């Protein structure tokens, strides 16, 4: 199948585009121009690949989880170990790429929004390495529930600004980062952490993250000689999922499943699953599935995982949903929590709560696919940042 | 001739500048909005920009964010706001009303359904902050069909080619954002505003109104010397915030505040040509 989205204005079918205040249109054009100039430039790509190899530690392994496979009873379970990347998640693939763009554009200051803190840490890390000033916006509620990452960012020299407006979570952090950018466009590069936002962000973040899927294609050839039968990834904004899925879009024999945060259940009002239970609308610079009420106001979301607690999703996912190429499902808080413990005890890998959502659905999928099939689950991040949350839920106080 | 066109034509004939206040509909409570609109007219408003509250106002500073939150606490929705305009129109047939907000609330209702009701209610124009000309094809013909002017923003970062493209799509007036930043920001560079307005005028005959960063008589007067209209938002919304517990006094407070700005603008020597340029150096108080 031919797939050449987005168009030159960033549209994936009816989704995507550029819905921002006028002040940002010129900076977005500059960014798009720079990206289109560099994206096929051998020197730029070599620099990116070198950073991914020597700084991030790529390629990340494709690991056969044998005990999990046996326990689930069905398809072979392979884990794409993005948790082993420097800084502990897939987020760094994108920040390495965007930092190179910032350097080419001569920007001296980077800003970022963060939910779980993984993207904030990845941004602070790359800023430290390049000697750039870094400000990270984080919802006040997330600052509370992800305090280890807040401290990590501070150690790295970043300034973390808690955001007290709205629901005090990721969406509000993104509003605040956009306000900062509009005020400081001359020297500031906005490092968006996911495949959402105005064009060209969904495109360039996807391209930087697609290293995940490209590696899986090569690794599956080596390890089992064919492509996997199914891919499973969690979807908040959707960058780890797009990174895994995108190189497989043209391989129709590979089924793909995006797992949203079902919170207390998609049938309740407390979830973060716009693709499963939302509707198309416009938020943060793009048209996409969002969670909004009949008056168009954005709804509060709920998820045990701060990184998935977002009322929108990257526009390309909206297109992939409508086109039927990817199936979008949801896993609830308690299912994710059970999978968090299961992987930890069964394979000795502590997953991020975000990634645990993908595992929760994979567990259901394994027997359906059946023995002899293979599925790749994107283990998008490690769970060190979540152990305080888990301990608190279990009534344990860590000093 | 639309109500907005007529307003600017009359002002031009009189050598005066447009005073355009902004308030958020439903702030501090939906019951007060119509009274506040009438108070603005008594204080000297030529056009009213009525904000449609949104949960995620990404181009607005803290003052208007809080106004949105106050309005949304009372469930202020777009249909209700159109009813407010209709009520305002019952006793004011002349003052143009422009709805200003973000796209998603309109998108949820459907642009056609919105435009039908907006026209019936007596709305004159629409300014959708996050609707760029690149994305506007599906909206502008519909708004035009129902006689609604499409007001667009221009910014200090807008290059000349973009200015031309935006000016071609706009009607009513153009809203020049005086600074890089969000609403309610503190500093304003009149000389650079004047230069940008000169450039914009080479591409359009539409009136140019300037907003962001205008908060008192001095800044209003400075901007009035170079623009066709002066937009004041956060400074008024801050008065509403301060007086929200004494809502019955708010009409008087807003009227007085606006009258003060009106007086400053009217103290300018009458201009009969667009844009008398002077070498002005004013640094408005923060």
TrEMBL record, chain A:
Keyword Aminoacyl-tRNA synthetase part of the UniProt annotation: no
Keywords, ordered alphabetically: Amino-acid biosynthesis, Aromatic amino acid biosynthesis, Lyase, Pyridoxal phosphate, Tryptophan biosynthesis
Record GO cellular component, one term: cytoplasm
Catalysed reaction, written as an equation: (1S,2R)-1-C-(indol-3-yl)glycerol 3-phosphate + L-serine = D-glyceraldehyde 3-phosphate + L-tryptophan + H2O
EC number: 4.2.1.20
PROSITE patterns documented for this protein: TRP_SYNTHASE_BETA (PS00168)
UniProt modified residues of type N6-(pyridoxal phosphate)lysine: 91
Enzyme class: lyase
Family matches, as Pfam families: PALP
Origin: domain of life: Bacteria
Gene3D superfamilies: 3.40.50.1100
Entries under InterPro entries matching the protein: Trp_synth_b_CS (IPR006653), Trp_synth_beta (IPR006654), Trp_synth_beta/beta-like (IPR023026), TrpB-like_PALP (IPR001926), TrpB-like_PALP_sf (IPR036052)
UniProt-recorded Gene Ontology molecular function terms: tryptophan synthase activity
NCBIfam families listed in its UniProt record: trpB
Described purpose of this protein according to its UniProt entry: The beta subunit is responsible for the synthesis of L-tryptophan from indole and L-serine.
Similarity annotation: Belongs to the TrpB family.
Subunit field text: Tetramer of two alpha and two beta chains.
Identification of the protein by name: Tryptophan synthase beta chain
Naturally occurring in which organism (per UniProt): Solimonas marina
Record gene name: trpB
Automatic annotation (TrEMBL), chain B:
Pathway: Amino-acid biosynthesis; L-tryptophan biosynthesis; L-tryptophan from chorismate: step 5/5
Source superkingdom: Bacteria
Keywords assigned: Amino-acid biosynthesis, Aromatic amino acid biosynthesis, Lyase, Tryptophan biosynthesis
EC number: 4.2.1.20
Pfam families: Trp_syntA
Complex formation: Tetramer of two alpha and two beta chains.
Designated name of the protein: Tryptophan synthase alpha chain
Source species of the chain: Solimonas marina
Gene name of the encoded protein: trpA
